[in-house]
Amino acid sequence: MHGATLLSLLAAGLASVTAAPSCKAPSGNDPVATPAGEIKCPVVFDGRLPASAALTDFDSYSTSLFNAEYVKGNNLKWSEIIKFPSALPAARFDHGDDHKPFEVTISDQSIFMQQRGFRRAGLQFQGDTNNGSPGSRGVKTLHFSLRWDNQRPLNLSHEYLLTWHETAAYDANQFNFEAGAIIGQSNLPRDTYKVLDRNNRQVWSTPILKDAWQNFAIRLDFDRNTLQVFYSQGNEPLKSVTNAVYNNNAGEGQYQIGILKKPTGTSDVVNSGYQSPNLDEGLIYGSLFVEDSANNCISL
Ligand SMILES: *[C@@H]1O[C@H](CO)[C@@H](O)[C@H](O)[C@H]1NC(C)=O
Q1: Signal peptide location in the record (predicted)?
Q2: Which of 177, 212, 235, 253 measures 20 to 30 Å from 14, CA to CA?
Q3: Which residues partner with 100 through β-bridges?
Q4: Cα(153)–Cα(106) distance, rounded to whole angstroms?
Q5: Which of 191, 262, 276 to mutate to test the pocket of ligand 1 (most atoms within 8 A of CB)?
Q6: Which domains does the chain have, with CATH numbers?
Q7: How many CB atoms lie within 10 A of CB 19?
Q8: pLDDT score of 33 more than 70
């Protein structure tokens, strides 16, 4: 089917489902009035999946945008982990004809190395080396859009890391983007997406939506040691939702994008604790890239 036709059909379907008498229809549902967001800055890592991509493209370095071997269940291939959701509107910086969203899933098989406490599937950009990566220097902005999958919901009684940047020494994460019940912080609501700083202090949060794209950007200044969050819904332009707050961004390392589900009922989350069996959970990603935000450049 022709892309533009498909988009119009999707938009029409969405409008009829979401229309409420007292509510102005969000302009983000109208692809004609609101074209896709344009990337304004040099792209350092592009995780926007080509519309023509096959699942097996994730299994090989020659065809994947990501690391083909990590970070996933030892006996799983990426082509068994990733799913292509059907019939979704394009995320903000994806172009419907050129890119498509993808879903990262976890199951009982999602045990990496000997980490029996976690269930995890995390993508790393090809070229984002643990030491000396361009992604860990200057000022960089990680963009990603998320969409909830009602068929494979996360269990918000657990703590989930969704995207983060881990130091080269694997001894800290410069930031964590999370969902669910944060272990040791029961004052924080479960049903939100949260940005936590290097010390696991919440910087910002927003309610999880079940039926709309949510667009996030995290700008990391590795020289000045700050972090700033940008956010929007649907196809709206992103807006800054925090100041550039102090954050210790030292230690280089790598971005990781996907799902890491922590267990409950243990002080040793890596190796023990409870995970409910027959797990079938996922989260849909789109509009994924890292851009160079030198000279205050940022795509909104
Ligand atoms: C969610 O997680 C809790 C804690 O592990 C578990 O007791 C519960 O059964 C889970 N719910 C579902 C629907 O899997």
Answers
A1: 1-19
A2: 177
A3: 49
A4: 11
A5: 276
A6: 36-296 (2.60.120.1160)
A7: 11
A8: no
